[in-house]
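Our example pasted here:


***
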Amino acid sequence: MAAWHTDTRLYRLTSASRERALPADLMVESFVLHDAVSEPFSLYVNTLVLDAHVELKQLYARPVTLLTTLADGSQAHRSGYVTEAWSLQSDGGLARKALLVRPWIALLGHSLQSRVWQDKSVIEIVEDVFADHAGIAAWHWDEDVPTYVAQGLSARNGGRRSYCVQYRETDLAFVQRLLAEEGIGWRVEEDEAAPGGHRVVFFVDSSRQPQDPTSQSSLGGHGIRFHGSSSQEAQDSIQALAALRALGPTATVVQGWDYKANAAISAEVPTAHHWGGTEASSLQSWLSSYDPSGDFIWGNSAEAQFAATRLQEALEARYKRWLGRGTVRTLRAGTWATVTQSTLDPLAQFGQAEGDKDFFFTRVHALGINNLPKDLSEAIARSLGDAELPVPDDIRVSSAGDVGEAVADTDALRERAQRTGYACQFEALRRKVPWRPVLLDDTRARPRPRPTALGPQTAIVVGPQGQTSPQGADELHTDALGRIKVKFHWQANPFAPQRANSDHSCWVRVMQRAATAGGGHQFIPRIGQEVLVGFLGNDIDRPLVIASLYNGRGESGVAATPGGAAAASDTAALAESTDHCPSSQMNQVNSGSGGHSPAWHGAAPGAASPGSPGQANAAALSGVKSKEFGGNGHNQLVLDDTPEQLRTQLHSTQHQTWLQMGHLLHQADNHRGSFRGQGFELRTDAWGGLRAARGVMLTTFGLRNGLGQTPEPAGDNAPGMALAKQAQQLSQTFHQAATTHQTVGVATAVGSQQAGQSALDDQAAPAAALTKSLSGMVSHTSLPNAQADAAAKLTQGGADKVPHSADPDIALVGKAGIGLTAGQDLHLSSGDTTQIASGQDTHWAVGGQARVQTGQAIGVLAGAIQPGGDAAGKGLTMIAAQGPIDLQAQAGPAQVAAKQTLELKTASGVVNIAAAKRVVLAVSGGASITIEGGQFTAQCPGKITVKAGKKAMVGPGRMSWAMPQLPHLESICIPCLLKALKAGSPLAAV
């Protein structure tokens, strides 16, 4: 092995590592390189060592540099990290080792992460990712990238993405995806100051990337010659160059949905290239790429236009390519070169631009074989066999698909490399054509695949600072759109560095069962609750809350046991509930401060008897229940489907207010308590009010609901109408009787305002007006038609009519009776007339004083029924069990008349008859006694008979008698009082 030295070799491998030096006798045998723009290069190197016992750990996980000697004696460098090492053949001494060298950014493919960024630009996000790899990372942004980003996909936010998620992606895949979405490319270049001897350069303008060193060199003239190959050539050259054209989209259309604007945002970008002849041009009308990108991708049409332009540029860069091969050892993806002395030169006379000979290299596939002495090569072949380059399948497939079968023949490449020591094949496009990265999905048809969520995920609702527990009454954190923020479980990585806004999500919409203009369902999950999050289009960047979940562990039931061992159920907490006290509603997570148990459960189906663990609830309760902010109160709608005990309850713990219908019972959360009755119950510990602008009917007459029967309309009040008609007839009958007996008539029968008028109807007396109002019939076709019929007081039925009160009446109709009782006061008041009528008896029982006061006359008529057997004892009886009876006519005469005997009697007192002027006692026969002034006159047409045991005629005498002092009414304005009473005013000017 006298020829075993590397100084004069074409290729050498060096390392800058101070801790672990490469074996001194390590020699490069051959290598294969695959390099592409926006992809980490792969450099496979076959090496030889004289010591077969060199350990692989001495070779891998270290920076190395492949030095290539050029035609002018200078060297080209390719630096990277050894990521894999293999032991191939060995004869016990001589050994062949294979190394895989990749740039530092390829190592990010081993770092799998899930994390969130908010309000960060792509530059900030990428640099944040690289910060985790500060020991190896080195990068540079071209000077035009920041401006490009600020005016790009998120221009409305100054280039900052509102929400960006890396979910189960490697750092490499995540960075490549972000850069492809923005249209930012990257390449690898040498950098002596970098930890690994190279850095990543990010660019947006492919035409401004550096020129290939061989193209810059003046050794063989400016540019790279299109020329045959030879190991003795002064400059490397290109031996083959072919154009490849393929049909592609002639236009790109993108569309997104902006739910805030309730509008679609779209843009169309046609191709900037000419496709050829007439036949090709005719295809342009339908060869378009339409990409509906999802919700809230862009905020305006300018951003959509930017995205469509970048996507069209990316597609066009791949449908007109140049494929070639040569011996240019400096060739790198991401650089450009001028091709000279080629078949393109004659095209200049046809107007071909000089710049059309400049090509930007997008992919390079190279193979190098070291210039080992022939006898050494033969000895190695005898000992170890021919070297096989370990080209993986992904490189072979990529080469065949992207470079072309004719040029990507590795065997032919090896044959050429054996003659000259180096051979390469490449893919390029004209330098003036923009190059953009593009990611394709598995079908290789859809560009820009988004990170895929494998299904819905659960998350915890968080507060303004990312807290997962409410602070007092601050249980809700939402915005004007009802959105919330959540924290996914994978965000709680205790070993990851904390980043601002990385512990929660962006504002996330909450799915509602109905969402209409100003209406729909409304449920906002609260801080600390667990929710189920779906993703629009399975895009991890587009979360949507679709449900909420119970979690934790309740107070009762079977506790968790190791290995699924059997255990007794703990039901002690269930036995503590009563009609008014719930139990077993808490959660055992964090001493009751965490976890969310169901509002109702079926863990206690037994009878709800005192001391038993039953709560009479066999999971029959369903409905909706909310909770007071920072308290224990709640509102709930309960649907109880217990067999033969169906019940619905609308309940608020505020003043214990509820409406309960069906099988009424006590309920304390999950506890179904004792029986309360059947029907419905509306109750509150505070105040209540019932309002209806067009009428209220309360009746105990039921509707037909039998099988085969047509039920009456809801407003049917036939019993009430019949009773009102009876009351009207009764008032008319007694009005006629009052007229006959010369007393005050019944105003409800004759009229209150004027004859035949009332406040309710100017065409009918009050009783008739009420009957007419209750008998209204209105159209069911529309509300305006119904209102018009009610205003017209229509009572005629029809096919399109339904019963409805014509006025805003309150109709109380009792089939058996109506009881009105009050613990203190009971007031009956009306602005027009009040009629109390009964077909039989009416009793007034007053424990204190009874007062009847009117502005006009009081008429009391008794015995109006025609005398008969049933009329015995009919009359008017006025008795004061205690105290006097005082009858006064303060502004007119008083008359007491009887058809038969009129008696004035006193059991133990006196009867006084006094008058201010005259007292006359007279009979129809003509006899009379007159007391007037100071005289007493007795006169009769017949005799006067005086009978007495003793007669005495004495001198004159005088007796004074106090006359009653009656009020003067001239100062009171009676019309004013009546006017105020009619207007409902509590005060009147008198």
